[in-house]
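Record type: monomer structure entry
Structure origin: computed from sequence
Chain ID: A
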Amino acid sequence: MSEHILFLTGRLAEKQLHAILGKMQPAFTYTVHELGLKVAALMTADMIARRLTDTFGADRILVPGRCRGDLDTLSKNLGIPVERGPEELKDLPQFFGQAAHKIDLGRYSVKIFAEITDAPNITVEEVVRRAYYYKQNGADVIDIGCLPSTDFPHMEDIIGTLKQEGFTVSIDSLENDDLLRGGKAGADYLLSLHESSLWIADEVESTPILIPKKHEDLASLDRAIQGMQAKNRAFIVDPILDPLHFGFTASIVRYHEVRKNYPDIEMMLGVGNITELTHADTMGMNALLLGICSELNINSILATEVSKHACRAVKEADLARRIMFAAKEHNMLPKHIDPGLMALHEISPFPYQLEEIKELASQIRDPSFRIQISAEGLHIFNRDGFHSATDPFDLYPKLQVENDGGHAFYLGVELARAEIAWLLGKRFTQDQSLTWGCAANTTEPTVDLHTFKPAGTTLQKK
């Protein structure tokens, strides 16, 4: 027996809801009930509790996505589940498609090493602050970067402090002395050893990341791998990702060749050589690079946020690894899983065509302005008229709000958002901020650094 769903709506949307459900040919039966209000978005849980006197034999009730209030309590009182649908009616088909196969983004296979590149030049407290920032954005390992020809007297204090705070730590240097000191101080990983510095691994318990002596010298990497295998020691291999126009394509081939020759070893990809050294938005780069990791079973990446344009790189990599894990697990393309990596564009930016917007406008009987966008531009309308433009300044003379500063300011903000959405191909919903995915997510460390005392292993919270 198929599920019966009760759709609650308002007068303006009722006709359109019937039309969309009719085209869907759903696997469920349904009833559409207009709740006695004009605009469905104004519906609240309290209003439903007061006005809904018949549930029409429904197994589930679906309310508009912008319906406010406590739906859990409403569900208990009505005795059947009450759920929010999509914010836009045009998204109903996609909504029910997603509901059929909800994707779990709670799992991933790739560890993120987040590097603090200038650790020798900053304090222990600043390193701790950045470590918490990276952790909150998804980092699994805090990588302490050393600088050439730069003294690092507080390396041991930094590593000891981070370990005491519960972090997994790696030390990153081209100098053998730095790596040896870091390993003896308790670093969990050493970046990076090659065949000539492999002796350091014999001196410490840290897991080494192995690199070729020269980028293209896979024979030297083979010897390092075989040396560690002979000792039955854990290790990770990084064939080195080179920047674009400085060997990028050849380095991708190297990764593929190493994976083909060693199907089961752990590998690392240094994504920062692309995200940092390419002036393009980093979300797409992270998506592609984590997709390569997924295909080649590379389970560690080294990420950085040095360049200002790469300021969300760790958070983007965190979401990208989860999306790619889910796509691989479900044997599907990395589409329709999560929109967080789509900052500038959207899957369906203009859900309503101009004629549909005009039809809605013809039903408006009040003076409140509605703003929508279509592929043709911006549209603002109320009972007194319908106006379209691609430049908000062209609309101002037609709105007659010269003597109402507050209203003019509000419409200016909303029309500016609408213009940005129209130009970029994003969704615009009146009275809501535009969505920017990971690009707008800022995370500040929650740790109170004023409670710390610098002194390595004696550091304590008050």
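Annotation 1: The longest strand covers residues 4-9.
Annotation 2: The mean pLDDT is 91.
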